[in-house]
Each structure stands twice: as structure tokens, then as C-alpha cells.
Write a structure and sequence with these properties.
- The protein has 13 helices and 9 strands.
- The chain is α/β, with parallel strands linked by helices.
- It has 2 domains: 137 residues, Aspartate/ornithine carbamoyltransferase (Rossmann fold), CATH 3.40.50; 153 residues, 3-Layer(aba) Sandwich (Rossmann fold).
- The strands form 2 sheets. The protein has a 5-stranded parallel β-sheet, with helices on one face.
- Helix 8 links the parallel strand 6 and strand 7.
- Helix 1 packs across helix 6, helix 6 packs across helix 13 and helix 7 runs parallel beside helix 8.
- It is globular and about 55 Å long.
- It starts with 12 loop residues before the first helix and ends with a helix.
- The relative contact order is 0.16.
- Bound molecules: phosphoric acid mono(formamide)ester (CP) and norvaline.
- Norvaline (NVA) binds next to helix 7.
- Norvaline binds next to helix 7.
Amino acid sequence: MKRDIRTLRDLTRADMDHVLSLAATLKQERGEGRLRPLLAGKKLALLFQKPSLRTRATFDIGMTELGGSTLFLGPDEVQLGTRETPADCVRVLDRLVDIIAARTFAQEVVEELAEHGSVPVINALSDLYHPCQVLADLLTLKESKGRIEGCHVVFVGDGNNVAHSWLLAAEKLPLRFTLACPEGFEPDREILESAVAAGADVAVTHDPAAAVDGADAIYTDVWASMGQEAEAGDRQTAFAAFQVNRELVARASDDVVVMHCLPAHRGEEITDEVIEGPHSVVFDQAENRLHAQKALMVWCLSGD
Ligand code: CP
Ligand code: NVA
């Protein structure tokens, strides 16, 4: 059976451990100047409905480093769902490429691509999930804290796609996840309930100061995600008390790490001082997208 990554539910705990371990190995080897052509001759299509820096660059460079090649198809070319259905689109692409990474608005588009395509489809961000980001974040957490197990990750901000993927990670891994969000910006109820039903150590609160007490990692993201631009003004008001700033960081452990998936709106969800400060690991997270997605593509295509 082909291996899609529609959400982190497509990975078992053992799969996640394997991908993270391979990512760490590939990172170390790259640092020593060694690149293994594990996907020699393979072709990746990047099918994107939304803008991107990190995801596009790391998938493209990652596939090149693994010995393959990449085709980028942006929103203007494909007009997914308007010019052509996702099902028809993938039935063409799967005759041409070996693997697809898709960045979409609706999660249903990722699901449709995976259902109708014969090659693996990786979710490169949808309105609902961002699995590649959280895999890279888990690698960053392991590097910076020395462990994932038992870490308390406190996400201060919107109950969005990144937060949803953290909830799914908490279903699989023995970590604690708390979301501190304004009222009305809670995560999707079904995703939260599913995490709770799976026995995950997760909580939602509206008090960021109390939430970060003793946190191992404070995470934040933009207050208005791609597709929510029209709500940005209202959201600035609603989220004003949820900024990750010096005062908030001071309430956490001395060795807390501060995480952000980027792009950041400096001065809104996070201050310049914190993003440039000693606790910040945001650029390690960005680099780790490369290593995590290389490992993920290898896993999808070869299973090792
Ligand atoms: N973090 C992230 O996915 O960045 P891009 O939107 O630039 O790809
Ligand atoms: N929540 C953000 C993440 C960007 C990487 C968005 O969807 O725009």
C-alpha cells in the first residue's frame, strides 16, 4: 500500500521515531559533507495553492540532495478545483512523478489527491493541518531539549493548522500539549476530542501566563493564517493579550525554548526581542524542515 501523509495520523509512533531518527542521521551526514542519493532519479511534484518559502525550498532542495528532481506547480498554473478537479489533476501527475507534496486550502483536496493518485501524497499544509512542520519541530525539540518524552509544549495563539498537528502528535508521543488561545479561537472540536479520547495529555486554556508556567517550549504562530487575511484586523484585537514577549517567557522555565514555524509577524504574536533572544530556536526549526522532509520522502518511497 502506498504511504500518504495526509495528517500525522498516517504515521504510527514507530514510524515517527523512525522518520525522526533518519532525519537526524541525514542532518549529521549533510553536516559532514555527505549526501546519500537515496531517491536517485525520483521526481517530486510540488502542487501549491498558497505561498511558501520554507516548504517549497526545503522540499525542492531536499529532493535534489537525495538525487531526484522537483517540478513546482503554483496556483496560477494549475488552478486546482477551478480549471481541473484534484482527482483529474492527480491522475495526470501520478503518471509523471513518483511523489506529490500538496499545499492546499481545504484538507479535502489533500484527501482527494491521495485517494485518486497512485503515488504518495504529502500534506505540505492545509487549512486544517501542517504535519511536515510539526515533524521538523519534534526534531528541533529533541535537539534543543535532549528529549521529546515528557516535554510540555505550550502553544500561545490560534487553534490553527499547526496547533492541530501538535494535537495529533500528542496522540502518538508521550508529550504534554497545552493551547492558550482567546475565547472563540479554540482548535477544531473533533480534533481535540479525538486527542482526548486517544489518551493524549492535552489541554486548552485562555490564560497564557498560567499556561507557560514550567513550560519546556513556548510555541507561537501568526494570528491570521493564509486565507484569513480579511480577519487580520479583528484578530489583532482578539489576540492582543497572547503575544509571546519577555514577560511571558520569564514565567516559563529558565531553559525554555521559544518556537515559531515562521513567517513571523514581529511585534504581533512575538516580539523582536524574543525571536532574536537566547531562547529562540526558530531558525533551527526552519532548517529542520529540510532534514525531516527528506526522511519523510524516503519513508514514503522506500519504507526505510
Ligand atoms: N513554516 C512554513 O511552512 O513556511 P512557508 O509557509 O514559508 O512554507
Ligand atoms: N498557520 C500558518 C502557518 C504558516 C506556515 C498559516 O496557515 O498561514
